[in-house]
């Protein structure tokens, strides 16, 4: 007999009623009711939540009335939130149940709002769903979406209903974006309907739908690629151009943000073929990016009389006065600036005639404190504009850099927002790499040195202040979370200090070291054993760069980093071990004979990390692969530091590397050296190691380590071809490979 729950109903029915009531409470207008519901919801186990939610979404009968549409909509929203909060494990566990339920809900024509919420939840679910899982449902899902699209398009034509259709086109865009080239077979059934929506959605209340559909078309085009999309490219571009010409006010038209991002995707799809359209799209972009913000100084009474819908924000200045700024225009300005960055990045020489106009716009915007994203875009644009300017020759490039350099350095010293500051510092580092050796004069270097010194000193001071706050009476978990957020911001700025130093070391080489010595005590302080692990990680990275780019002169600093680098090979944190292992590798590769004894000391420490039981776990694998690569570099560049014949078999057994692509290709290159020289230890007696070597090459291709543009790809293909000359040996090698590995080898032979 079934257990009896509340009100004499079976327990399962009672639980479902309670859960549906909980979902209603989650959307209750009362804040107190919502908070209580949220607390209850948080304590329900994940599997139970999902089961109940799916029942609510699917509108199942449970011995009583069906759930209300608001409950179903809330259930969809909650599923979407769970897909965000618990991604990707939620997608991996519940993909079958969730995708099926949401698609069925979208098919149900009973309620537009429920359909819209289901489509929205599916978008969120898809964003973090692994492609390998999504393709399992691809055919039925896409055909389902197409049938719903046809129905909703007819409803739009007959009744003007648009809500579910707006979400549906976004869902289609999300699917295409996720599955990419696997959308090609479905392209021809979707594109006519999508173009038709753009053609007929001309009324004012349909502009948002039109914008979202334009966005969808650009996502689909990007997914299927230029070759497939070209059949519609001209027609789509004409639709975009017509829409562009119909935009009377970029600030207030809901199509604007979708249009500018769609243009950017079209640029990415068409490449150089997009240049013919650039003159048509860039003028309104520059106009919007150049727009002055609407600001006002008002009495407090006037502020109270202004409607919230006017898009103004106010700051009270005291004395009954407030400063106001219209924010809607700022968003349009930021979007336009970001698109200018994108075009400069993608088109390069095709953008060169606009560089002077755009740089004169962007440099002053480094101080546009009304909107963070405007300053971010201004900073991002600098290295791309320099790349474009290089096409016109060194003198033009030098003039461009003179205009950019001083304001960019000053912005590093004055920017108040951490996120924006990090982008400015990143932009400066990239700009140095574009300009190369000698790009900074003495005044620039002096100013930069003072700014970086202040950043590092501030980093240490902030750490001390946080420790003081941890001793205060009001310290609790909430305070600790705030302190950790502050610490993460500080560490992120430290990474950007490291990026700037990396750019200087890689361009100036040892010539920059006398300037660097003003910062040396602070960098040495970073790698002290008492410092937090991120300090030690980034301090070691800075010394890694000095060794790599400034050797043999770097050896004069060896006593500062020798023991920290060796001791940090034992650190509990894999990021610190990785930085130390990489440093030991570049010592062997670039350091010269002075580093020979240090390389000898390093080998047993590196081996110990590699042989650790959990060395290949997801957390540790990158550090471990850097250790393997470091041993390879010692074997290659400092063979007199180690018994090569003894270590080589172990090194070979640790290959291939999977995660660190840069180090992986270096190990494969060294492997080619050994094979091409017929090294007896690597080849093995009677060619016994060749099956292992062939499997390493196959794995390298499968892991996308091998890039056909890299010379190593051809060398590896030649190794395979050499083995193929002996039929017996080749059969022995491929007999130990699975089908996927054999296909990878064949692909390598076809293209390299």
Outline the structure in words.
By secondary structure, the chain is an all-alpha fold. Among the domains are: 129 residues, Serine Threonine Protein Phosphatase 5, Tetratricopeptide repeat, CATH 1.25.40; 138 residues; 98 residues. 72% of the residues lie in helices and 2% in strands. The chain contains 36 helices and 3 strands. The protein has a 3-stranded antiparallel β-sheet. Helix 27 runs antiparallel to helix 28. The longest helix has 32 residues. The chain is globular. It starts with 10 loop residues before the first helix and ends with a helix.
What is the topology?
Blueprint: H1 11-26, H2 31-42, H3 46-58, H4 69-85, H5 89-107, H6 112-127, H7 131-134, H8 138-159, H9 163-179, H10 187-200, H11 207-224, H12 226-246, H13 256-270, H14 278-290, E1 295-299, H15 300-305, E2 312-318, E3 321-326, H16 327-347, H17 355-365, H18 372-389, H19 394-414, H20 418-435, H21 442-469, H22 477-508, H23 513-516, H24 520-526, H25 533-550, H26 558-567, H27 574-590, H28 596-610, H29 621-637, H30 644-653, H31 661-676, H32 680-683, H33 690-702, H34 711-724, H35 727-734, H36 739-751
Antiparallel strand pairs: 1-3, 2-3
Helix pairs in contact: 1-2, 1-4, 3-4, 3-5, 4-5, 4-6, 5-6, 5-8, 6-9, 8-9, 8-10, 9-11, 10-11, 10-12, 11-12, 11-13, 12-13, 13-16, 14-16, 16-18, 17-18, 17-19, 18-19, 18-20, 19-20, 19-21, 20-22, 21-22, 22-25, 24-25, 25-27, 27-28, 27-29, 28-29, 29-30, 29-31, 31-34, 33-35, 33-36
């Amino acid at each position: 007999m079934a257990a009896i729950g509340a009100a004499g109903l079976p327990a399962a029915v009672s639980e479902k009623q309670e859960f549906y009531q909980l979902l209603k409470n989650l959307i209750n207008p009362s804040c107190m009711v919502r908070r209580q519901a949220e607390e209850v919801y948080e304590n329900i186990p994940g599997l139970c939540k999902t089961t109940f939610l799916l029942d609510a979404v699917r509108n199942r009968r449970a011995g009583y009335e069906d759930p209300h549409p608001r409950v179903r909509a809330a259930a969809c929203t909650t599923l979407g939130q769970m897909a965000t909060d618990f991604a990707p494990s939620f997608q991996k566990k519940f993909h079958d149940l969730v995708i099926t339920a949401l698609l069925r809900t979208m098919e149900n024509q009973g309620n537009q709002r429920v359909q819209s919420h289901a489509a929205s939840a599916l978008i969120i679910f898809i964003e973090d769903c692994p492609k390998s899982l999504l393709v399992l449902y691809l055919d039925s899902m896409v055909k389902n979406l197409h049938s719903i699209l046809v129905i909703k398009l007819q409803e739009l034509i007959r009744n003007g209903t648009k809500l579910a259709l707006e979400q549906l086109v976004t869902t289609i865009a999300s699917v295409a974006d996720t599955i990419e080239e696997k959308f090609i077979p479905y392209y021809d059934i979707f594109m006519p309907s999508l173009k038709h929506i753009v053609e007929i959605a001309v009324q004012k209340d349909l502009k948002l739908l039109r914008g979202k559909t334009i966005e969808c078309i650009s996502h689909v085009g990007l997914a299927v690629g230029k070759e497939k999309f070209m059949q519609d490219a001209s027609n789509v571009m004409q639709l975009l151009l017509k829409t562009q010409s119909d935009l009377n006010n970029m600030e207030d038209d809901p199509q604007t943000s979708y249009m500018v991002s769609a243009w950017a995707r079209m640029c990415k799809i068409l490449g150089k073929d997009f240049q013919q359209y650039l003159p048509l799209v860039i003028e309104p972009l520059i106009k919007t990016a150049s727009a002055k913000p609407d600001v006002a100084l008002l009495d407090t009474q006037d502020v109270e009389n202004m409607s919230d819908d006017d898009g103004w924000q106010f700051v009270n200045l005291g004395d009954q006065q407030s400063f106001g700024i219209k924010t809607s225009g700022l968003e349009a300005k930021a979007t336009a600036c970001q698109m200018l960055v994108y075009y400069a990045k993608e088109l390069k020489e095709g953008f060169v005639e606009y560089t002077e106009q755009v740089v004169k716009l962007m440099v002053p915007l480094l101080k546009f404190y009304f909107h963070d994203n405007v300053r971010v875009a201004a900073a991002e644009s600098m290295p791309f504009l320099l790349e474009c300017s290089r096409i016109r020759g060194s003198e033009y490039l030098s003039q461009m850099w003179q205009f950019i350099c001083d304001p960019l350095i000053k912005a590093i010293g004055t920017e108040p927002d951490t996120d924006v500051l990090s982008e400015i510092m990143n932009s400066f580092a990239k700009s140095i790499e574009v300009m190369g050796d000698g790009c900074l004069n003495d005044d620039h270097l002096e100013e930069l040195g003072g700014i970086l010194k202040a950043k590092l000193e501030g980093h240490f001071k902030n750490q001390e202040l946080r420790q003081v706050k941890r001793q205060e009476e009001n310290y609790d978990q909430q305070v600790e979370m705030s302190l950790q957020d502050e610490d993460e911001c500080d560490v992120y700025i430290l990474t950007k200090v490291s990026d700037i130093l990396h750019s200087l070391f890689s361009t100036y080489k040892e010539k920059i070291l006398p300037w660097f010595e003003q910062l040396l005590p602070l960098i040495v302080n970073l790698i002290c054993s008492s410092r937090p692990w991120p300090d030690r990680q980034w301090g070691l990275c800075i010394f890694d760069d000095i060794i790599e780019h400034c050797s043999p002169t770097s050896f004069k600093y060896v006593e500062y980093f020798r023991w920290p680098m060796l001791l940090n090979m034992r650190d509990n944190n894999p990021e610190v071990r990785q930085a130390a292992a990489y440093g030991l590798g570049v010592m062997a590769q670039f350091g010269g004979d002075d580093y020979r004894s240090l390389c000898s000391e390093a080998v047993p420490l590196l081996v110990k990390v590699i042989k650790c039981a959990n060395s290949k776990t997801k957390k540790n694998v990158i550090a471990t692969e850097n250790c393997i690569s470091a041993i390879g570099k010692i074997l290659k560049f400092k063979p007199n530091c180690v018994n090569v014949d003894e270590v080589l078999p172990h090194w070979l057994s640790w290959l291939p590397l999977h995660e660190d692509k840069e180090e992986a290709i270096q190990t494969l290159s060294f492997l080619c050296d050994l094979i091409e020289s017929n090294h007896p230890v690597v080849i093995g007696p009677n060619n016994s190691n060749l099956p292992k070597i062939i499997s390493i090459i196959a794995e390298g291709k499968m892991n996308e380590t091998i890039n056909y543009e890299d010379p190593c790809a051809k060398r590896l293909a030649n190794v395979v071809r050499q083995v193929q000359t002996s039929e017996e040996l080749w059969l022995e090698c491929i007999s130990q490979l699975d089908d996927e590995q054999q296909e990878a080898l064949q692909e390598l032979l076809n293209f390299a």
